[in-house]
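QUALITY CONTROL LOG
STEP: pairwise intake check
CHECKER ROLE: data steward
CRITERIA: each record must contain a sequence immediately followed by its structure tokens, with no blank fields

ENTRY 1 OF 2
RESULT FIELD BELOW
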Amino acid sequence: MSTLDLLKPRPGLRVLVTGAAAGIGAAIADAFLEAQAQVYVCDVDPVAVEAAQSRHPALRASVADVSKREQVERVVDEAAAALGGLDVLVNNAGIAGPTGGVEDLDPEQWERTISTNLDSQFYFLRRAVPVLKESSDCASIIALSSVAGRLGYAFRTPYASTKWAIVGLVKSLAVELGPSDIRVNAILPGVVEGERMNRVIAARAEALGLPFETMREEYLRKISLRRMVSVDDIAATALFLASPAGRNITGQAISVDGNVEYL
């Protein structure tokens, strides 16, 4: 096998991507489909799920709230049945959560952020790992964390707490699942260009009493390369981790962020 061949995931790879009807998840699902993988996605938005299936007739998909354990279990069971097993789990689903000082945060918003961003990853892992252990293709788990999983993030404590926890989960599972030939890694996106980031910048600007453009420039000044990353940058990293070229990479928290220096 040539070096270039090592960079390509095996055709027919069975992949489940959570929260994948839009944004980073959709870009990852699209990339795997382009690489001739079999892909199953879930998302809480039924309209987005229908649109994703319209764009990609080969895509299998279902509607699910990933914070609900019974719905997660249904998704994993349906995905494994539809694909004939699983080789890759991409734990992507998550929300931005609230912005504000810790003393002003609504406890219900805190709990929703924890359940959507962190509990969901555990629910998927708990159900999917036994299926991944049956894979003969060096199974892989890819968890989406964030640059906020390696840096402190004032006024975004619920979100940052979940993203740090995901890194700990990944590093622990890499040790636990290595003997079963299952690799576990985290991708830490930085400032990702798009509508979701615009909403985050707007909320932070409001919390600090600053204009949107001033806040946006402040974000860019914190990045060594002075630019945001794209969803395609994140998708390319996921493909690499699921390819033969990544077969000895596990337990890593890989930043794709242009080197965000501080938040």
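ENTRY 2 OF 2
RESULT FIELD BELOW
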Amino acid sequence: MSTKRPKLVVIGNGMAGMRTVEELLQLAPGLYDITVFGAEPYGNYNRILLSMMLSGEKSADEIMLHAPPWYAERGIDLHLGDPVVRIDRRRRRVHSSKGVERGYDRLLIATGSRPVVLPLPGSDLPGVIGFRSIDDVEHMLQAAQTCRRAVVIGGGLLGIEAANGLSRRGMQVTLVHRSDVLLNQQIDVQASGMLIRNLQQRGLSLRLNTETASFYGNGRVEGVTFADGSRIDADLVVMAVGVRPDAALAKASGLYCEHGIVVDDTLQTYDPHVYAVGECVQHRRATFGLVAPAWEQALVCASHLARFGHRRYRASRTATKLKVTGIDLYSAGDFIGGAGTEDLVLRDPRRGIYKRLVLKGRQVVGAVLYGDIGDGGWYFDLIQSATDITAMRDRLLFGKHYCQPAADAGAAA
């Protein structure tokens, strides 16, 4: 006698949601009838590689993680280009923009994040865009064929990657940042200085310590005005000033939200039938913008959906790597340091190498690497495991190869 399978509906066809589905299918294949709604008309793709698509190093097909046949082969009911617009939690049903209605026994919300749009005059002009999707990249590629000048606002990871990609496509690019330190959330002043020189050598113009005031144009963006009264002409403006959790749908359904959808250590919301993962969530007052936490959340959430409820999510330290060809930059942990910490620093200006390790007692707590990042993963492991580095302290800056004998000896002792 067959039994009816419970229904799982997934809102969001991005990396976090689909990683959860992947893990679930491994843990409990066939447990659920699964329906997935995606706002974009594409399969699940690697958003991290959008900058490489922009620069021409990858095609749209090459960044695809799960094309539509993958879903069909696993019996997943896939709805592309059809976002869910309403969740009826009382009846446990979702309603899509195209009128599709599906019931659920468990609901997984993975709506990701939305780019921050500066609320400035002219921000709604055509030609002012974000950098978050394949459509955004396609828009930029079209602009690069007919336009000459671009302004990228935001000196974080996405802004630098967008500026580099547009420059490689032949545009004259000005990168605008409100601080005098690029990647000020990820690296220190010394590494930023080396990065600035590298970007300038690539032909990028930089406007640091500069506040954007407005955008001007007649029917389309034609330039940017700054707080000091200066202006610069532009045919394309890319805003890369951060993202916010996309929690609007969850909030409208009555789920408890603060900055994001509030979840517990099992990734369950205040409604026991509803889970959430990825950039849309808030866990212990923290929100997330990197892929590593999303992967960890996916594994925990999948185990609970699979009814193996033994895992708990604990936010861990993360590492950052810039994805610009020819620029090797890596940071991890508490690279700022402060009271009770000390720095180990290696500088080799001729070879363009800078390494800074932040120590606290006998442990590495942070790292910034520029020009030589081969040991980044090893340093990150030292941070994560709180390894006692006393035996290899004097060789630590030279990397794993020079430290391994000391590390092995310490482990044996």
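INTAKE CHECK: passed for both entries
DESCRIPTIVE NOTE, ENTRY 2: The radius of gyration is 23 Å.
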